[in-house]
Amino acid sequence: MVRFMKKKPGNISRKKVALILKDVIEDFISFDDAFQKATKNQNSMKLSNKDKAFIYLLSSSVLRYLTQIDSTIDHLLKEPIKKLPSNPKMALRIGVAQIFILETPTHAAVNTSVDSATVKWRALVNAVMRNVAREEEKYKNIFNDSPKVPKWLLDRWKKNWPNDYLNFIECIQDIHPHIDIAVKSNISKWQIELNAELMPNNVLRLRETGLIADKKGYDEGEWWVQDYSSQLPVKCLNIKENDEILDLCAAPGGKTAQMISLGAKVHSIDLNKTRIKRFKENMKRLKLNTVIENVDILTYETERKWNKILLDVPCSSTGTIRKNPDILYSKNEKSVSNLIDLQKKLLEKSWSLLSKGGQLIYCNCSLEKEEGEIQIMKFLQKHKDCKIDKISSDLIDDIEYSVTDEGWLRILPNGKESVKNRDGFFIASLKKVS
After folding, report:
1. Is the pTM value of this prediction over 0.90?
2. So which residues are the catalytic ones?
3. Per the CATH hierarchy, to which homologous superfamily does domain 229-432 belong?
4. Could you give the CA distance from residue 82 to residue 28 in angstroms, rounded to a whole number?
């Protein structure tokens, strides 16, 4: 009689982590999508919330520290880890992450790494991991001294942010990044209900971890997840009741929800069908109404001119790596260049839709100056009917160190203001003059 051994939950969790890592690193699927795919496809057992939390923590930790992990493993192999097939690569990465990041007991880290490898590769994984275990202090030092982010990004940050890039990396490697939310109304109530910290500009920061959808008020549509920095562009519009606003590149809809909650009538446009679907689901949960069009802004035709436009352009998203560590590996120099060109076209098109005397907010969650400061400086040089509408602390609290001499906002992930560890963001308010 053949006996089937019951699979251990820990082994299954680590195999799920390996699937997520493969999807992100090799197939360039976003981390959130890869996580949802792995945790919903429960072939062998039903995952508990605790299992899902562990899978999220381990897989995101590997991604945050992948450059260091691979550099360390390279010291233990005859050839670079990148030449190995996917299965042993992921097993070794999971093992090193457990020992040096999550501080899992060494024997458990070794055993679970071997278990997550296929039979063909278990001997190699076992040998490498036991070498790490035998000389843990030696390899811990190698790990700590290894490059912490991919070279293309490190070179950029050293050039553009010589005094700040180490702080950026520190933020990225926080394995428990906070979650901020925006509330439709009655913020005092939800601060208490959610045991949240009240930040400047009426942003709530959750103190407790756990699945977002399980928290009070989520299903009822009382609030939505939106980082502190991401909530600031809307505040620059100084919205009045019944203001009519064009929201471009609007999905998944956090800023649209903000504007509607402030009394605006919003017309939202986005090209991405998947993001539009999520946008509509979010608006339904929040019980908010807006016009949503799934069209390409660059070919959008209308006779109408708008007095207020919000343009949150697609970008490299390097300001959000601490929550989206897949960006470290899904983006590169070429993709940044392509995005810069798209941003330029979107800004030109948006400007043509703005009425004289109107205000356009240009923003993105990138730390790359070519996507922010340089993009706007080039636009100003070309358009004599454009001037910077300097962003004032009368509209936004706690921005003393983020307002530049030019009058736009450059929000760094770990700035000098009271709010630490937030998304990096660029915001410019442009005025159309005659």
Report:
1. yes
2. 365
3. Vaccinia Virus protein VP39 (3.40.50.150)
4. 16
